[in-house]
Amino acid sequence: MNRIICASLVALLSLVAAVATAADPKKSDPGDLSPAGIFRSTNIWTIHLSFTSEQWEAMEPKPARGQQRRFGGNWLQGPEGGRNGLMAAQGINFDYVRADLEFGTSQFKDVGVRYKGNGTFWSSRDGLKRSLKVDFNQFVKGQKLAGMSQLNLHNSVRDRAGLNEALAYRVFRDGGVPAPRTAYARVYVTVPGKHEKRYFGLYNLVEDVGGSFAEDHFKTSKGALLKPVTPNLFADLGDDWKNYNQTYDPKGRLSDEQKQRIIEFCKFTTTADEAEFAKKLGDFVDLDNFARYLAITTWLADLDGILGPGQNYYVYLHPKSQKFMFIPWDQDQSFGQFPRGSQEQRENLSIQKPWSGENGFLAKAFRAEPFKDLYLAKMREFNESLFQPARITPQVAELADVIRDAIREESTDRLTDLENTLAGKTVTTSVGPGFNSTVKSIMPFVEARTKSVKDQLEGKSAGQTIGPGFGR
Q1: What is the per-residue DSSP string for 285-335?
Q2: pLDDT at 78
Q3: Residue 254 has what DSSP assignment?
Q4: Element holding 440 (H helix, E strand)
Q5: Would strands 324-328 and 426-432 be described as parallel, antiparallel, or unpaired?
Q6: Rg, Å, the chain Cα set
Q7: Contact by Cβ (8 Å): 54, 192
């Protein structure tokens, strides 16, 4: 009898411990290296990168020369076949170097590591803590972590509280939009003679949008994954794919049929009259996905993406439906924290005309009733559910509790911004080296934005539009 009681007690205590561990968001299983296990939003992983002195030096970007503009290009496009973005357009390229990586208790030899980012690199280029991309099979083919070949380590230099990406991507996912998963990572670096397991800080660990992402969300990785950089999305650039290639920056080799489908839609968008465009837009675009994506993007006042200069998002051409679907990216200055227009303008950003400057594709889409009606319905649904302050507040508090110690160890300034975020005070965002601005923290923005969107939906307000460029 005593044995039975003891066994039962042990089983009960084990069950209680298991439940307690599952309920505690700060605890994670270091052996769970499945994608779902890695990307629990409250996980903080320990990452240690080891470089030789030569590798560390080789990773430092060196300006390219002789960069040429292309037909259909713009100021954010890089050289043909290379990266796009602010740094690439200035001739700054990032090369992979070899490094050894410890991820939790797992070890990897000869992974590829390079700097990443554009505005974030510009803001952090004079410091040690820069955003990083890790490619497990850059030098060792077939090497992966939980079936994933790449990871992104974002330095949150423009979101010192470190909350925006995790919260924004969660909203997208909860709203039915394919979006990256996130966690956090304490990153340490060793370089002989320079750094001995030096703590660089707390990074946002962000799932890569690539083949495994497409397989997970679309059940196939055979579609065309694009990362457009253009303020004139789906504009007719002629019949030759070379005029489109850098603008749409395909992540992988495209078939002739995929290239033709993109060109076909660009010609349709440019030449179709209003009635034909409204009637056939759904033949080219997954309207449900686009309405959800654009409703959330607009609500967040994300003005550094499709609503602004036309960057920081992905488009996936599904191989079965032959329709384009949208995927968010680069959410570190969401919740109205990208300094385009004034704070008041961002809080009251028009839901009828949210883009800044001219945008032919969005303007035409917003005049197409099949899309516009669906978009406004999703905006109303999300404003009354996903974005309610009572829903966002505990998410902010949960993440802040998880990352506070890691941020305290890194930086007093970051800790101040985290505590100010919790207190609803203004926070600091970096626009460039030596150029910071203050913006409303998440919850005051959420409260103001919820009211503004409600008033616009009820016809009590027209909202505010924002012109091109920065500032007022």
Answers
A1: B-HHHHHHHHHHHHHTT-TTTTTTTS-SEEEEE-TTT--EEEEE---TTTT
A2: 84
A3: P
A4: strand 435-440
A5: unpaired
A6: 23
A7: no
pLDDT value of residue 469: 64
Rounded to whole angstroms, the Cα distance separating 216 from 434 reads: 41
CA distance 227 to 251: 7
User: What residues does 103 pair with on adjacent strands?
Assistant: 47, 106
Start-to-end C-alpha separation, the chain: 78
Q: How confident is the model at residue 243 (pLDDT cuts 50, 70, 90)?
A: very high
Residue 244 CA: distances (Å) to CA of 30, 35, 272:
44, 34, 20
d(CA 427, CA 405): 19
Lowest mean pLDDT among 56-65, 263-272, 444-453: 56-65
- Mean pLDDT on 22-49: 76
Note whether 410 and 202 are within 8 A (CB).
yes
* Total residue length of the chain: 472
pLDDT of residue 18: 34
Query: What are the Cα distances from residue 326, in Å, to 1, 305, 312?
Result: 63, 12, 11
Alpha-carbon distance values, 357 to 221, 291, 328, 362, 422 (Å) = 35, 21, 21, 11, 34
How does residue 393 score in pLDDT terms, banded at 50, 70 and 90? very high
What is the Cα–Cα distance from 363 to 450, expressed in whole angstroms?
A: 24
Q: How far is CA 373 from CA 85, 366, 370, 435, in A?
A: 33, 9, 6, 41
- Asked if residue 9 has pLDDT above 50, the reply is no
pLDDT at 65: 57
